[in-house]
Design goal:
Strand content: 5-15%
Number of strands: 7
Shape: globular
Structural class: alpha/beta
Amino acid sequence: MRYASNLGWRDLPLRAGLQERVAVPVTTGHDVRAAGLAEQLLGAATGVADVLLLTIGTGIASALVSGGRALTGGTGAAGEVGHAPVRPGGELCPCGQRGCLEVYASGAGVARRYGARTGTAFSAAEVVGRLGSDAVAREVWADATSALADALVTATLLLDPSVVVLGGGLTAAGADLLDPVRAGLAAGLTWRPPPPVHLTGLGPLAGCLGAAALAMTHAGLGDHLAGWARGRRPVPTGTG
């Protein structure tokens, strides 16, 4: 694990450390890419070859799929859109840059920005719950959804996804998240239609199911994944 800003980890040999402590083979992967794999197999991107999955939780990251293949990049860091500057020169991010998407649109960012203006320690979910009665909550949320839409405009022009899937804890906001992000994405693409934007089809299970798929592949059972379909999660015979 090269760098995890929200955990304070750098250059951690995670796989080797786990392998020393368990008696079975270990494989590791990026949590959001695992979720993206699951959404392709079972969720909102089933059967789609060009997908952008954006997860919005404590931090923000994405899984990129082009032509049916996951994009990992030259250093394995493809998809770290949470640290793409969407407000150049803006607020300081824990990563050391300024104006990163995570600062404005992650769950931690929404909670922090609301707390800085009100002196209260509310979670992002609580901020969303106050949208109907709290002007500060509406302003912070508008900043978040606008930043997300701006990031998706750039990602769409670079990657041309057939579908955008939003996952992570903040998707519990439902239409309060989806509607302004869709509108902002459409407004930012003047010469082409926006890709459809959907909420995760698997919710918090996406990463777990993707990890299971990685484990199956590592165990030589990858052929079984072809039989996965929406709402059906088969267990290969004899594997328990």
